[in-house]
Amino acid sequence: MSIITFNSPRPVLADRISRTAVANVLLVIAAAVFVGLLAQISIPLGFTPVPLTGQTFGIMLAGAALGWRRAAMAMSLYVLAGLAGLPWFAGGASGYVGANFGYLIGFVLSAGALGWLASRGNDRTIAGSLLSMAFADVVIFVCGVSWLAHDLHVSLGTALHYGFYPFVWGEIIKAGVAGFALPATWRLVDRTTKH
């Protein structure tokens, strides 16, 4: 049995509560707001334009819980509303965020990928969930670091120093919490629906 599975689609957590178009819209909005709130947990590092934030934790949870369509829509809403002026990017920023823009693109792609993996059941086991979270982080950082290097006109090594290395331990913790939380939530949901 492989840790990451590519089975036919299965319900995700949001499918247990979302049965109408209105419920889907509310879930998308709620996930965007959740990530916007977590973005306000922002610690500037001084040597880099990229702050420590809680956003990626929200993306991990929302991506896996919503499924790929709702997750990608939620993160697209988050990005588009922030670009339009809603001050809910890291530290209350809005508009085009320059060197950090690649991370926003990564959020949309990562949430969609997590949702797709969750629809294949990868959020139901700890091992599958942890690997899915790690993959989601890779997507975010590939997009973020690439754009950072381009926008700041620095080498890949410098971009990694600015936009990846300082965040590794925080991401391991966030991925670990999310990776354990989703299978535990599934066990709880399955137990309550059997009674």
What are the SSEs and their pairings?
Blueprint: H1 21-39, E1 42-43, E2 52-53, H2 55-66, H3 68-83, H4 101-118, H5 126-152, H6 156-163, H7 168-194
Antiparallel strand pairs: 1-2
Description of the molecule:
The protein has 195 residues and is mostly helical. It has a single domain (13-194), classed as Arp2/3 complex 21 kDa subunit ARPC3 (Orthogonal Bundle). Helices cover 65% and strands 2% of the residues. The protein contains seven helices and two strands; from the N terminus they run αββαααααα. It has helices at residues 21-39, 55-66, 68-83, 101-118, 126-152, 156-163, 168-194, and strands spanning 42-43, 52-53. The protein has a two-stranded antiparallel sheet with strand order 1-2. Strand 1 (42-43) and strand 2 (52-53) form a beta hairpin. Helix 1 runs antiparallel to helix 2 (55-66), helix 2 (55-66) runs parallel beside helix 4 (101-118) and helix 5 packs antiparallel against helix 7. The protein is globular, with a radius of gyration of 17 Å. The chain starts with 20 loop residues before the first helix and ends with a helix.
